[in-house]
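=== RUN LOG ===
request id: a7f3
mode: sequence -> structure
chains: 1
length: 367
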Amino acid sequence: MDTMRDITLANDTVDNCRYCLMCRHVCPVGHVTRLETLTPHGWGLTIASQRRGMAEWNEENAEVMFQCADCGTCRANCVTDQPFPDTIARVREELVGLDLAPKRVRETADRLRNWGNPYEEREPTTGAGSGDTALFVGDEAAYIGSDGLAAAKRLLTAAGIDPVAVGHGRSNGYLPSSLGYADIAADIANANLAEVRATGAKRVIVLSPGDHYAFTTLYADRLDIEWPSDVEVVELVSVLDSSESVSFSAEKDARPYAYVDPAHSVRLPERHETPRALVSRVMDGPARELFWRKERAHPVGSTALQFTDPDLANHLTWARLGDAKQAGVGVLVTEDAGTLSHLGAHASRFGIAVQGLYELLADRLDG
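=== RESULT ===
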């Protein structure tokens, strides 16, 4: 990795962002904490102060740097496309090198280094077989989203697709990168690529926008690892929306519903309408929209923040459920396993039901 280039990029971005308030109003962490320190503006000033010799890194300001969600909302709302989330990740690399990463971050990194995921002490299942299409399972779908994974496989079968499973139980690489462990992220990325190459696949279907972002953008931008140019990455929602082999029927359900844009959706603006179109094919109640949606979507606590500051991550989840309550929503629908897990853990407090999109679609297949 070209470290000097990364340091230059980080410093240039900080200089551009530290006094700019263009994205401050959309930062989810700033919204739930109401602390200026915990906004892109505040993080930029903290980094700039260290760069200019006005402050030194210590445990207190290092903790502040690990309270960014790395959700991408700031960059999605920047007209000059400043890579501020990549800068946060780069600064965290420095803090890891200085042994200033919080204890829970170091513990998570150890699990990722040993097992390739933060959830289970088991090694990823190596894919077997070959084919034109592969399905990247990942760690969230394998360990906290098994129902959604089973439903996704039923949907692929209905669409006439028999993919080779790869990366079962392995991170997509986002988490270690976000935590500042680029070496672990690179090892995981290369392992994922090796599995894909071994299958001979020319198309990799992913289950979430987070997987799509990691493969098509994060690997190159943060790790200097290029995804093979002859291998297409496509989300399952896009495959299903365009498939002529599957059809669905809507169940009678009068409850107002809303689609929740999963973590990292803001990094893929072209994907906003596709999952909504799928939801409308199986839900016949009135459709509502959350305020924080599409290009300004706020994540629940399923980003790296759940491992850097779990209490703050919970507040992000509560904020999304509060948004839904205010919109008069009875059912929240989304497909991402991490987003579903965090919403489901707290939804009963708000009197809201949470349903997985893949499960809904699989249950309402025609024929």
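=== NOTES ===
The CA atoms of residues 150 and 359 lie 8 Å apart.
The chain has a mean pLDDT of 94.
=== END ===
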